[in-house]
Amino acid sequence: MNEIKFKENEYVNLYNPASRDFFSVRILNSRANGYKVKVLKTEQEKDFQDFYFNTYGYHRICISNEILQNLGFQKKDFQYKLDYFIVWECLTAKNLTIILNKYPIADFKHLGYAIIKQEQESNFIEDFKHAQENKNTSTLKLFKEKYKLTFMINNLFEELIKINPNKYNYEEFDKLFKQ
Fold this sequence. Notes:
Elements: E1 11-16, E2 21-31, E3 34-39, E4 44-49, H1 50-56, E5 58-60, H2 65-70, E6 74-76, E7 79-82, E8 85-93, H3 96-100, E9 108-117, H4 121-134, H5 137-146, H6 153-163, H7 170-174
Antiparallel strand pairs: 1-2, 1-5, 2-3, 3-4, 6-7, 7-8, 8-9
């Protein structure tokens, strides 16, 4: 079986075989053969063994339009802004004009989301254009590394807490998954 490794305060969806759907949890801490989690819908703390994760399945939660808007981000084109914070959805295509002009496209690649501060925006745009124009693997790789592109909601939450710990915390993030 695969060894499962979660970090403290990581958000994941666990599969419920009885109802054939997923439910959201936050990992509180690790145990000998599993994890203590907070089931976000009920706010109950429960222990789950590694057996449960391996047998029924789980998936890590990705950044989504819905979560960003519930956090208060305002969407404009491929960027979401909140105060002095920007989450930029990075897409690349064969023809850069297609993306910049917002035409529907079939052949694009989603590189992930860049989480940047507003003062980094102009440098980010220049770097992104350079990565788009060159389209070679090493240029895209350097761009991804420089801006720590991600799909995972946990990375966004960690950045928000780092930038403004007085405003953001895991208890507030838990509320996003209670629906």
